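subagent[fold] <- orchestrator: predict structure for attached chain, return tokens only, no commentary.
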Amino acid sequence: MSHNARSRPAIGSYVMDTQRNKVGQVMGHEGPSIQLRSPRGGREWDAHPDNTRPATDAEKLGAKVQAANAGSRWGK
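subagent[fold] -> orchestrator:
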């Protein structure tokens, strides 16, 4: 199920950007786009709601583990 203008994902929730094949945390909504940021941090990117779906528990966990591992490698 993709998101549309009527069912925008909540800020702070995790979605899968199916165009980039990447999990992102919803940071905001601007016009027709959803602003996402990797759980590892970095720059936000825009995703069209039709190209997103709720992230599965496994996808969220995987993204959070990658973020934790990246931080531990750099002493964060």
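orchestrator: received. Logging for downstream: The two ends are 36 Å apart (CA to CA). The chain has a mean pLDDT of 88.
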